[in-house]
Amino acid sequence: MLICKVVKPLVSTNRIADFQHKHLQVVLDGSTQKVAVDAVGAIPGDWVICVGSSAAREAAGSKSYPSDLTIVGIIDHWDPEAGKEMAAGKPQGGAK
């Protein structure tokens, strides 16, 4: 699973039939923009949980769905700076 930020919707009116009418979003994974199928109704600015690979296809509704990244949850509260501190091994709670 990944934590990403929704940047903007991606509109694609001409697409293969297998894509059906699922909404697409441009999400930011660190500094990399990716396209994700939106299964939950996220809006720009939302922090979201994304899944990839076969989990992305299943979350989009079918194991044969052509997706390698699907938004499966909207995060209620997320401080990206706290996540960076945890990854760097810094103590939480403002302690230095």
Explained architecture:
It is built from two helices and five strands. The protein has one domain (2-88): EutN/Ccml (OB fold (Dihydrolipoamide Acetyltransferase, E2P)), CATH 2.40.50. The chain has a five-stranded mixed beta barrel. It is globular. By secondary structure, it is an alpha+beta fold. Helix content is 17%, strand content 36%. A hairpin with a 2-residue loop joins strand 2 (23-29) and strand 3. It has helices spanning 53-59, 80-88, and strands at 2-10, 23-29, 32-38, 47-52, 69-74.
Strand content: 35-45%
How many domain modules? 1
CATH class: Mainly Beta
Total helical segments: 2
Rounded to an integer, what's the Rg over CA atoms?
15 Å
Low-confidence spans: none
Shape: globular
**What is the terminal-to-terminal distance?**
30 Å
Could you tell me the number of beta strands?
A: 5
The CATH superfamily bears the name EutN/Ccml
SSE string, helices as H and strands as E: EEEEHEH
